[in-house]
Amino acid sequence: MKKLFFELTESLKFAFKSLKSNLLRTLLSLLGVSIGIFSIVAIYSAIDALNETVMSSMNKFGQNTLYITRFSFMGQSNVPRWKRKNFPFPNIDEYKFLQKNLSRQDVKAVTFRIFMPATKLTVPGGESVSGAELIADGAEFPNIQELDFASGRFFNKAEEQRAAPVVVLGADIKQALFGNAKAVGKTLRLYGKKLKVIGVLKKEGEGIGPSNDGRAFISSSFARTIVAPHKSFTAIIVAPKPSADVKKLTDKITILLRQKRKLKPGEINNFFINNINTVKEQVEKLTKVLRMGGGFLALFSLLIGAFGIANIMFVSVKERTNQIGIQKALGAKNSFILWQFLFESMFLSLIGGMFGILLVWGGTTLISHISDSIHIRLSMQNIVLGLFISSVIGIIAGLWPAWKAARLNPVEAIRTGM
Domain span at residue 52? Predict the structure, then answer.
């Protein structure tokens, strides 16, 4: 063991000495690996950031949240398109029917949502906002999607039942209408009707997926006094409890809705029950495909780096043929020569890999500083992956030159330098 350790140590010293004596060539050799590792680590970091942002946005809607509407979120169905276009949107009676018949042992919340057309919100005698995204929902909505309030609250069940003219504002809408002034308690105008501001949400910031910053929330019951629900996109949202059997709950909803819509046995369902977790699974699958595709593209850069290192190692073997012959004549074993060149190749690749990772770190840090909406971080997993790949590339690129050097005949090797 001591002999092996001594052999490896001496090989390492020779490798370092060779790299230092040919500094310019060393830098040029590691450049290809640096670009390759930079490419693969940067691509993986960007994909991880994309996945994290999407999943974070979707996690706001809870686990296994069910959206009942007339179309499938995944866009896949055995039902012909012309039939799907004639499916009715859920209505308020169906919402009340489900609310009454679904067991609260399995269900955390049930709401009726109306996606209102973009509209204008006005402060009497003050500012106005055009194109505000107006969401009409039930009082149980905060039990489905977690909401952080800067001030005030969401409307309650009593306010929903009596169609109270109250509104909750997203951070951007509040800022546009009231600036830094207090908004809770103030009055707005919507479709000629007055609404009282009862809550303001904390700013979420830009990102992938829906943000509440540009939204205003009113109760679905109040919304029905200003716009006909059948002219808008509606959905019934059911949030199961963590302990609920989602499959059984989905089957129960299907039976109840078929009963309510008087569908006969053999008739297809004219509604879709979309599980938010299915969308998450599709996002995860897409992420895996992107990682594979990104890795495949970055592989070309790594191959260029590997060929560069292999070429330099062949040149190095040729230049040091005389030195190898002398070492072998003095008793150096083939394994000593092999390790010497393998170490040199591996360190070339590792240094290149570390430089590539350093570039990624600098890029992610810069992006984080100049952008509030893009958050890319260099994870330890990607760092380890980059270093592992660069080590493997170094070993593969240096194996044939090192084996060739180890197999040199000492007498013929010494002659080449005479």
Answer: 2-58+282-416
Quote the CA–CA distance of 188 and 186 in Å, as a whole number. Answer: 7
d(CA 404, CA 314): 9
> In the block, which residue shows the tokens 């996002």?
283
What tens digit of pLDDT does each residue of 57-68 get? Answer: 666 666 788 998
Q: Is 189 strand, coil or helix?
A: strand
Backbone φ, ψ for residue 362 (5° rounding) = -60, -40
Q: Mind listing the pLDDT tens digit for each residue in 212-246?
A: 888 899 998 898 888 765 567 888 999 888 888 88
Residue 412 DSSP label: H
Task: Work out the angle between the directed axes of helices 2-21 and 334-370 (0-180°, nearest 10).
Answer: 60
Do 245 and 114 lie in a common domain?
yes
Q: Which amino acid is at 165?
A: P
Between CA 343 and CA 319, with CA 14 as vertex, the angle to 5 degrees is 90
State how far the Cα of 47 lies from the Cα of 382, in Å rounded to an integer: 11
Tokens of 325: 């012959």
Instruction: Using DSSP, state whether 67 is helix, strand or coil.
Output: strand
pTM: 0.65
